[in-house]
Amino acid sequence: MWNSATKGGQTLHVRSLDWDYKNPISKYPVMIVYHPSDPKLHAHANFGWAGFVGSMTGVSQHLSLGEKVWIPPKHSVKTTRYGNPWTYVIRDVLYDANDLKSALKILYTTDRTCSIHLGLASATDHSFRMF
Questions:
Q1: Domains and CATH numbers, the chain
Q2: Chain segment 30-87, per-residue pLDDT in tens
Q3: CA atoms lying within 13 Å on the CB side of residue 18
């Protein structure tokens, strides 16, 4: 939600994970806050599990992202196992993007390994995109 849909025109982004609570990974949730030493990279929080590499959901001062698995009909989307895993792509957006435009540039120019739904909210631009 953003602009006139919220009090004060804030941008709000909620993410809900629908994994089975019996999944063993659900016993080990973590929230890790990164404070990179490189001033060009952004501090951000990553919500995941112990031992899970990359990001499924994250928040920086500028953006929030959350994925939702998408299993397209067979042969409807060209996929490959060669490329940057989507969990790394989300992490890269959190580290590098300042706004919606820079986040979209990373997402559109990265060779990815599979298709996912992705919610991207920008506090800088007061907007939201769903891919």
A1: 3-11+28-130 (3.60.60.10)
A2: 999 999 999 999 999 998 889 888 888 999 988 999 888 776 666 555 556 788 888 9
A3: 4
